Amino acid sequence: MRNWPIFRLRVTTPRLELRIPSLDDLDELGDRAAEGVHDPGFKPFLFPWTDAEPAGRARSTIQFQFGQWSQWSPEKWGCSFVAVLDGQVVGTQELAATDFAVTREVSTGSWIGQRFQGRGIGTEMRSAVLHLAFDGLGAQHATSGAFADNHASYAVSRKLGYLDDGIQIHNRRGKAAQLRRLRLPRDRWSTPAGFEIHDLEPCLPLFGVSRTA
């Protein structure tokens, strides 16, 4: 689409392609959500979307993406990619920012279908959007966060060089839960070999980035 070039944006890694999802991709991502994202009883998300029955999880996954597209502006955007491994959608990786032109700060969030976990895909997905943020968009900081019992997410952040950035206490399904904030400054990031960004230039205004920045 000439007037919405974000659909052509891709980030590739040695194993993965991250792309803005087509309708077919969204259908497949909904299937991953329906199949399951975590063990029963585990609560990795503040908003309890995974508590819904499988069809509800699939629908909310698709609706979330439509909502991001409709609300996108250069001042506040959320860019959710699907991660594709060997031609199959395995999960989603978000990069988001508010007033990026001023703050040069992004945040990330992700999930992977449960049957694809444990293969290092989460680290590779996060690295891909950090490459986009730091090397493509000129970000100076990336933030993330995980509840204290989400050891897998915290391990990914640690592996990529994030620093502790304080804690927050949230109401998670009626109980207090500690969220660990994490921050990665630009000078602690080094892009791994084999990572590439495709068709970013036409998208820069959508991210609030000047072509001369």
UniProtKB/TrEMBL annotation:
Residues 16-185 form the N-acetyltransferase domain. The keyword Amino-acid biosynthesis does not apply. Keywords: Transferase. One of its GO terms (molecular function) is protein-N-terminal-alanine acetyltransferase activity. GO terms for cellular component: cytoplasm. Pfam families: Acetyltransf_3. InterPro entries: Acyl_CoA_acyltransferase, GNAT_dom, Ribosomal_N-acetyltransferase. PANTHER family: RIBOSOMAL-PROTEIN-SERINE ACETYLTRANSFERASE (PTHR43441:SF11). This is RimJ/RimL family protein N-acetyltransferase. It comes from Streptosporangium album.
